[in-house]
C-alpha cells in the first residue's frame, strides 16, 4: 500500500510516497518513503510503536524525518 504524504518546513514542501511492508520482509524497513521514485528513508516502530529511523540513504534533514514519522504515526497503520 502506497500513501502520499507531504511535509512542510519554512523553506520547502517535501512530497513522499510511503510503502508499508510486513516487518523485516526481504530486508525492508516497516515503512519506506520514496521521493521522485528514489528510496530516501525507512522507519521501524520501537516497542512503543514510535517510529525510529531504520535507513536514511537520502540523508534528509532530521527535522523533515521527524515530521514525516509523525505523519505516518498519525495514520495508525
From TrEMBL:
It comes from the Bacteria. This is Uncharacterized protein. It comes from Mucilaginibacter gracilis.
Amino acid at each position: 500500500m502506497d500513501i502520499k504524504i507531504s511535509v512542510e518546513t519554512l523553506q520547502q514542501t517535501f512530497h513522499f510516497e510511503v510503502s508499508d511492508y510486513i516487518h523485516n520482509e526481504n530486508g525492508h524497513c516497516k515503512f519506506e518513503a520514496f521521493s521522485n521514485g528514489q528510496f530516501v528513508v525507512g522507519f521501524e516502530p520501537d516497542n512503543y510503536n514510535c517510529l525510529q529511523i531504520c535507513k536514511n540513504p537520502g540523508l534528509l534533514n532530521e527535522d523533515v524525518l521527524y515530521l514525516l514519522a509523525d505523519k505516518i504515526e498519525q495514520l495508525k497503520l
